[in-house]
Amino acid sequence: MNAAAYKSFSVEFTDSDREYLASNFRLADTMADFIGPHCEVVIHSFESFEKSVVKIVNGHHTGREVGSPITDMGLRMLSAFERTGEVTPKCYFTNSKDGSLLKSTTCVLAGEGGKPIGLFCINMNLSHPFPEIMKTLMPDSALPHVGVHENFSASATDVIEQALEHAIQEVESDASVNLKSRNKTITKLLFENGIFELKEATGLVSDRLGITRHAIYKYIREFKA
Question: Model pTM?
Answer without folding.
Answer: 0.71
